Amino acid sequence: MRLLVVEDDADLNRQLATALEEAGYVVDVAFDGEEGHFLGETEPYDAIILDIGLPSMDGISVLEKWRREEIKIPVLILTARDRWSDKVAGMDAGADDYVSKPFHMEEVLARVRALLRRSKGHASNEIEVGTLRLDTKSARVTVDGTTIKLTSHEYRLLAYLVHHKDKVISRTELVEHLYDQDFDRDSNTIEVFVGRLRKKIPSDLIQTVRGLGYCLSTNENEV
Ligand code: CA
Question: How far is the C-alpha of 26 from the C-alpha of 180, rounded, in Å?
């Protein structure tokens, strides 16, 4: 899952990016409204964390512009504690949720998890596909109740497929959602990681759909 953090406070931006990366996301960062708006309109993020008070273009304007452009990426806004009007303006501009500053990082992480699972159509943090279960809160994967050890790359790939279970996902989409903008994007890498994952989970769960991509599913006939 790939996220964008738009926050002009360099320390806070770094803290957010670090915490989100540790939680298993890929994170791009922007430090002003124009840069943030540009990235949000050109890159296919899974969710965006957007500060309201930003130089060059304020967060509300950035959000309004995205929504006018039909960009539907879920957005969590960061608001100053006593500015209730920012929360109202932000939600009306198309934000999906908000966190007031100062916040506990755990709250941001929980709200991001909720945004992601809702936007992908899941009600719970635990998503099951056959005997495989992914807990997005603890980033734990089990098969038949046994924990499977995954590298961070393998986890990100599996989490993306699990969130989009029963859907065919192209290699291009995987590359776009699993690596940040500076990554040298080579879709052969995806094949290597899929191969490694298949050795760790029931191998028939990830199906190759020739010419289209991959599908994580227990139902072979639907693909
Ligand atoms: Ca700010």
Answer: 6
Candidate CATH numbers 3.20.20.70, 1.10.10.10, 1.10.3430.10, 3.20.20.370; the one for domain 126-216: 1.10.10.10
How does pLDDT run across 49-66, given as a tens digit for each residue? 999 999 999 999 999 999
pTM of the model: 0.90
Cβ count near 147 (within 10 Å):
10
CA of 27 to the centre of ligand 1 (A): 18
- For ligand 1, the distance from its centroid to the CA atom of residue 114, given in whole angstroms, is 24
Options 1.20.1440.230, 3.10.20.600, 3.40.50.2300, 3.30.70.1280; CATH for 2-119 is: 3.40.50.2300
pLDDT at 106 over 80: yes
Distance 197 CA to ligand 1 centre (A): 40
59 CA → ligand 1 middle, Å? 9
Q: How far apart are CA 190 and CA 36, in angstroms?
A: 28
